């Protein structure tokens, strides 16, 4: 004969109600081959499976106290249950429950242009870019600051350094080289801001 205990809880009510005697719930151990009194699990990983198939011997269930359950405005009170698993059976239960499938990132959210400053590599759509030192530095700076407008003087100071002797035409030459290496499909990722400078607009897969 299974052991039984008594557990008290107060049923949830959507509004104020007169005090009533607390309901009594019988608590007992659940055998593995015993019919489970709750509905079958509806989760994607457990759909169509009997919950008892996942419960090791000695597992106990009981209604959760109403104050331990979340409430949604305008919705009926939720019903929940507490599952009590013996300590020596927890590992077995964890291995029996299938893991949720990991979320796959949306390919549309992946950047087409990738710059790795540690390995000093750059690629677009998986295609490696063969860049010179200054072309790499210029592209890395633009990619790190998307949609930000940079003047030619700012780019000379940041990429070439304060000691560089030259003018904005040096920047124009390197931008033109970068555009050619990005390819005709993505050359517009580096936009010209007339009479100001340049900005980087991350290209999309579409």
UniProtKB/TrEMBL annotation:
InterPro entries: OmpR/PhoB-type_DNA-bd, Sig_transdc_resp-reg_C-effctor, WalR-like, WH-like_DNA-bd_sf. It holds the Pfam family Trans_reg_C. Residues 102-202 bind DNA. Residues 1-25 are annotated as: Disordered. One of its GO terms (biological process) is regulation of DNA-templated transcription. Coiled coil: none annotated. Residues 102-202 form the OmpR/PhoB-type domain. It comes from the Bacteria. Keywords: DNA-binding, Phosphoprotein, Transcription, Transcription regulation. One of its GO terms (cellular component) is protein-DNA complex. GO terms for molecular function: phosphorelay response regulator activity; transcription cis-regulatory region binding. SMART domains: Trans_reg_C. Residues 1-22 have a biased composition (Low complexity). This is Transcriptional regulator. It comes from Streptomyces fructofermentans.
């Amino acid at each position: 004969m299974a052991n039984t205990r008594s557990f008290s809880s107060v049923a949830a009510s959507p509004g104020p109600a007169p005090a009533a005697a607390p309901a009594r719930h019988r608590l007992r151990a659940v055998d593995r081959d015993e019919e489970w009194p709750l509905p079958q699990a509806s989760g994607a990983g457990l759909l169509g499976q009997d919950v008892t198939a996942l419960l090791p011997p000695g597992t106990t269930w009981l209604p959760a106290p109403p104050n331990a359950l979340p409430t949604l405005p305008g919705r009926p009170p939720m019903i929940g249950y507490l599952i009590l698993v013996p300590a020596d059976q927890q590992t077995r239960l964890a291995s029996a429950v299938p893991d949720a499938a990991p979320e796959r990132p949306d390919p549309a959210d992946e950047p087409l242009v990738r710059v790795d400053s540690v390995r000093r590599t750059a690629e677009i759509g998986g295609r490696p870019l063969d860049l010179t030192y200054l072309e790499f530095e210029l592209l890395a700076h633009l990619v790190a600051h998307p949609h930000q407008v940079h003047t030619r003087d700012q780019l000379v100071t940041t990429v070439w350094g304060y000691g560089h002797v030259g003018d904005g035409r040096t920047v124009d030459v390197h931008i033109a080289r970068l555009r050619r290496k990005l390819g005709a499909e993505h050359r517009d990722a580096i936009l010209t801001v007339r009479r100001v400078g340049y900005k980087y607009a991350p290209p999309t897969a579409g």
